[in-house]
UniProtKB/TrEMBL annotation:
It catalyses: 4-(phosphooxy)-L-threonine + 2-oxoglutarate = (R)-3-hydroxy-2-oxo-4-phosphooxybutanoate + L-glutamate; O-phospho-L-serine + 2-oxoglutarate = 3-phosphooxypyruvate + L-glutamate. Residues 5-346 form the Aminotransferase class V domain. Keywords: Amino-acid biosynthesis, Aminotransferase, Cytoplasm, Pyridoxal phosphate, Pyridoxine biosynthesis, Serine biosynthesis, Transferase. The modification N6-(pyridoxal phosphate)lysine is found at K194. Its cofactor is pyridoxal 5'-phosphate. Pathway: Amino-acid biosynthesis; L-serine biosynthesis; L-serine from 3-phospho-D-glycerate: step 2/3; Cofactor biosynthesis; pyridoxine 5'-phosphate biosynthesis; pyridoxine 5'-phosphate from D-erythrose 4-phosphate: step 3/5. One of its GO terms (molecular function) is O-phospho-L-serine:2-oxoglutarate aminotransferase activity. Its EC number is 2.6.1.52. Pyridoxal 5'-phosphate binds at A75, S76, W101, T151, D170, Q193, N235, T236. NCBIfam families: PRK05355.1, serC_1. SUPFAM superfamilies: PLP-dependent transferases (SSF53383). This is Phosphoserine aminotransferase. Catalyzes the reversible conversion of 3-phosphohydroxypyruvate to phosphoserine and of 3-hydroxy-2-oxo-4-phosphonooxybutanoate to phosphohydroxythreonine.
Amino acid sequence: MRAHNFCAGPAALPAAVLERAQAELLNWQGAGASVMELSHRSPEFVGIAERAEASLRRLLGIGDDYAVLFQQGGASQQFASVPLNLSRADDTVDQVVTGQWSKKALAEGKRLANVNVASSSESSNFTTIAPQSDWSTTPDAAYLHYCPNETIGGLEFAFVPKSDVPLIADMSSTILSRPIDVDQFGVIYAGAQKNIGPAGLCIVIVRRDLLGRARENIPAMLNWKIAAENDSMYNTPPTFGIYLAGLVFEWLESLGGLDAMYAINKRKAQTLYKVIDDSEFYANPVDPQCRSLMNVPFTLADATLDKVFLEQAEEAQLLNLKGHRSVGGMRASIYNAVEQASVDALCEFMHRFEKDNG
């Protein structure tokens, strides 16, 4: 029996995808070998990668003026790749800081460029986002970087920033949860381990006119132009990750695409937030206008009950609800593969726990 998995990442994968991968694991489509044993140069695996990219392009409406790259190193490697590909050492870049992941991107950016913090939510303990009219951006910045959804704090942008310079988005914990207009962005990157597939893979969607801006001393493995020219196979790519990602993309298409997924995700989030908001026992610290669709942090009125809550939740097969150490409390990550039934089970447990301990 599979438990209800609310892990922030590596996160739940769709059962249908895991079952298909299980069935194909030893002998992929009659090839006589596992997909993990196929050469990345073979026609079979090239076909897998091409189908995965085509499916992702359909889901997000990605035009030919964007390259789609399958990269290694997760999203954290892109914290360095972005400034190395898009700026010179003496350029100014703008960054918006709304949580722990954009703080990490900021720290890496400062090592490689002159960074202007256009806006920061740290004074509110990352519970709200300032309107863009209050930001202090640089007119000739090389780019503007932000994180649309902060996994740890459950803080999400309700708007896409307007920008005259390339807009760069770390969409690791929000990509594929709803439709987006890719044309609003210069670069979108996303670690796979939330809504795409297994950890270790990172998707980079980059407007082609931004390729070729990289610094001369950039490592080849970080150079998006080299990756694009080699169809993400400059080196051996994360083949199993690409294969599983492709299955996830097909699964999303079979559900009706991102419009259908968005409707499902809104229902899940509304169900959980209602339990929190209707209770004096639970609380969510985030400005309601900035609440995340994917990551729902909440606290108990009596923090001494946290350990008991987590122990009893695990006994009820409700896993990975402990909040990040920098925030405390609880956090339920309800990514695409987390079903409504799992959210309902969590809500029922929360009602029972409040009744017994409130």
